[in-house]
Amino acid sequence: MVATAARTQDWWQEKVHTLSLHARVTLLAAVAVGLAVAIVSIAAYMTVRQQMYQNLDDSLTNRVAQAAQKGVLTNLQNLRTVSSDALGLSDIRVGMIGVDGETFGAANSPIPPMGPDEIAIAQAQGNEASLRTVGVRNGGAHFRVVAVPAHYCPLGVNCQANPELYQPSALVVAQSLAPIDRTLHNLGVVLWAFGLIGVIGAALAGNAIARSGLRPLARLTGAAEHVARTEDLKPIPVSGSDEISRLAQAFNAMLAALARSQDRQRRLVGDAGHELRTPLTSIRTNLDLLAQADQRGGLRPEDRQQLLDDVRAQMDELTTLIGDLTELARDTPQVRNAELIELSNVVEDAVIKVRRRAPGVEWDVQLTPFPVWGEERLLGRAVTNLLDNAAKYSMPEEATPHSDGQPSGLVTVRLLDGVLTVTDSGPGIAESDLPHVFERFYRSSEARSRPGSGLGLAIVKHAAEQHGGMIYARNVPGAGAQFTLWLPHAATQTR
Prior knowledge:
With 495 residues, this protein is α+β, with helices and mostly antiparallel strands. The chain has 3 domains: 47-184, Beta-Lactamase (2-Layer Sandwich); 227-331, Orthogonal Bundle (Helix Hairpins); 337-396 and 408-495, Heat Shock Protein 90 (2-Layer Sandwich). It contains 11 helices and 12 strands.
């Protein structure tokens, strides 16, 4: 039985889940109202039935008890000669039963059903009465039988002169339950009819509510299908403040975020195509020159070496540009493989790497330990870009170390409480360029004569935002540009 019930429940759930939300709301409303109507109908039916039976029992018991006390019906002569039909009481049967089971009743009328319960009342002669139902509803004879203690005087005996001759018995009256059965039947029909009407009304109301309530959801579904079909990220109109309106607002926010991401990707692809053309064009030009020179007998060794060096430089620039584009194209909101990192070690490694590439720059470095949660590769790339940028602008164009061996530029690096400041000794950043220095592919007029793709500082900002930090730039009086990178302490982050 348990297995059958489980299979039935699984089947029902499977069938319900195949229905649409509209159909499920309608079905839920109909079932809920149906259960409520069924409970109320059953309660009303049982209450009315109980009350009708209780009223009948009280009335019948009182009447039979009074008849037994008055002695009119207990007189066998009266009982046998006057039937209930003669009194217009065809739905009532009257009789008596003695302690030995002998029954008495009207000669031309059926006597009420009598049995052990009534004999027990006759024998007990107490103050209690017996009540029972005989027959079944709509099955023919259906009576409520009441028996009360009584005495009768045998025929041919003068009991008034000698009261001891009265015999103990029970006066039995059977009341037909046909009127009550008809009333209960009519009540049941009415309850069923109104219950059915209520269920149908609830289904119609549920259908209307589902259609009205799910109309915004249908619009939202249509908008989502339209976006999937046409890639048109236009937001949908929102009205109201219910749950579906909040869902529509969230959907619009998602569309806006998707549009921003799509716009960033378009700009990145467009800018990347533009930036990739320059080194590729230079490489192709140099290779064409080499091919043409080889056809004419070749170049001088020093000219050939210069062209090859130029090709290698362009290849290095192209490799760096592709790596930067790959990093920015990820466009993830946060780091995926975060681990506990000592930021001072990351900065120290970056200083060692950049110092080898910029031997003409003096480095003033002071670092204090500071643990962070993050991705070491990305943080190392960001710090290296900051240091490369500072070293590049600290050295004047075409500059070489002084003849006395002194460096031509100075870069100051400080790490204190998670705040990394990198200050160069260059000319600084023009005020009009400060708001744009972290934009992708943005290069000021002064920077266009120097090597670079315009992505280094954009990667720094990208890494800072992914780690929950921030980056900003300013000019320092008496020095050059200063970049400040702040990252949160590992203890303040949950992983």
